[in-house]
Amino acid sequence: MALFRRRPSTVQLDPDHGDPAAAALRAATRAGDWRAMNHQLAAVPQGEYSDGLVIGAVMETNGVEQWIPQVVAAEPQSALAHLVSGARHIGWAWQARGGGYASDVSREQFQVFFERLRVAEDALYRTAELRPDWSAPWYLLQMSGRGLQVGQEIQRRRFEATVRRCPGHMGAHQQQLQQLCKKWGGSHQEAHAFARSAMLAAPLGSPFGKLVASAHIEEALSGEGRDLTAHLSRPEVLAQLHEAADRSFRHPHFAHHITPGGWIPVYNTFAMAFSLAGDVTAARHCFTALGDHATEWPWQYLNGGDPAKAFTTWRAKAGL
User: Fold this and answer.
1) pLDDT of residue 104
2) Domains of the chain, first to last
3) Which of 35-49, 83-97, 175-189 shows the lowest mean pLDDT across its residues?
4) Quick one: pLDDT at residue 195?
5) How many helices (H) does the chain have, and how many strands (E)?
6) Residue 130 CB neighbours (<10 A)
7) Environment class of 84 (CB within 10 Å of its CB; exposed 0-12, middle 13-18, buried 19+)
8) Does the pLDDT of residue 236 top 50, yes or no?
9) What are the residues whose beta carbons fall under 8 Å from the beta carbon of 145, sequence distance 6 or more?
10) Taking the CA of residue 145 as centre, how many other CA atoms within 13 Å lie in the half-sphere pointing to its CB?
């Protein structure tokens, strides 16, 4: 018996990534405290960080759909009210659809899904009319548009509208990458080309290297038989992962390009990519930095019911 054992840790998914501002906004949203939400959101400069706050605190919070219509009716000129309504209706739509394959979704579920997404789009277009300088409505329209299957051309225009207002918007690039994936009507070639060009165009130390890892994870997931290691363990793919890591989280300027808590999704993405690629040393480096900071994506791909368990399983395989 070993004299010392690694103390078991309880990994819990923290959607706020340790950001107190995000946690405070989430608490106000759950309480239905519109005054506090309005005050907190208005105090944050518009951009990718504020967009992430809206999505993180509002989209998946049950109950917002019950009171936000009254707020919109009382404050029809409030861009924030329309934005919150749009964000919540996207999350509410996906709750109705579920995360399974289309073949497992009933006709009734799809009907509710599309109805709620159309409500979201109306709210987001109204937001864009009231605040044409905001990136948030266009970013969220990327999400609703994919569900409504508006097509690659319209989705590209929505992406371009987002990045015109916020050029370094990592979330918008991540959404466009999803749109270009094979499962959404694109191709592996398009997804990889987009990810690599975005990474190379970004400053050294930016989080955009995550796009390269994400594209390879998506291709690995699309393989027949779900042998996730077959693609990622190819030497040329592993070389691309290391290049992306060197240009992002392993670069000394990485901290200068990250929003609060933004490093956590980057490390989680590379931790999974290197784990499945069989590069234990690189994976261990990511897990060591992360500690217990697991994220739902991409670990949900390995265990949809318990992403944290997938995280701890692969962390243990890395020797931690």
Assistant:
1) 82
2) 19-180 (1.25.40), 183-320 (no CATH)
3) 35-49
4) 98
5) 17, 0
6) 17
7) buried
8) yes
9) 121, 154, 155, 158
10) 25
pTM, rounded to two decimals: 0.92
**Selection from 130, 126, 133 nearest residue 141 by Cα:** 126
- Given a contact cutoff of 8 angstroms between Cβ atoms, the answer to whether 123 and 89 are in contact is yes
- As a whole number of angstroms, the distance between CA 244 and CA 251 comes to 10
Residue where the block lists tokens 């234990």:
280
- DSSP of 122-150: HHHHHHHHH-TT-SHHHHHHHHHHHHHT-
Look at the block and give the residue holding tokens 């989705």.
155
Q: CB burial class (10 A; 0-12, 13-18, 19+) of residue 70? A: exposed
User: For residues 313 and 319, what is the distance between their CA atoms, to the nearest angstrom?
Assistant: 10
Query: Which one-letter amino acid corresponds to residue 45?
Result: P
Two structure tokens written together for 254: 């990485």
Listed in sequence order, the DSSP H helices in the chain are 20-30, 34-42, 48-54, 64-74, 79-97, 107-130, 136-148, 152-165, 170-180, 188-201, 209-222, 228-232, 235-247, 263-277, 280-290, 296-299, 307-317
Dist CA 214 CA 181 (whole Å): 10
Distance CA 167, CA 208 (A): 12
Give the position of tokens 């992403």: 307
Give 255-311 pLDDT, tens digit per residue.
877 878 889 999 999 999 999 999 999 999 999 999 999 999 999 999 989 999 999
Residue 35's Cβ-side half-sphere holds a number of Cα atoms within 13 Å equal to 0
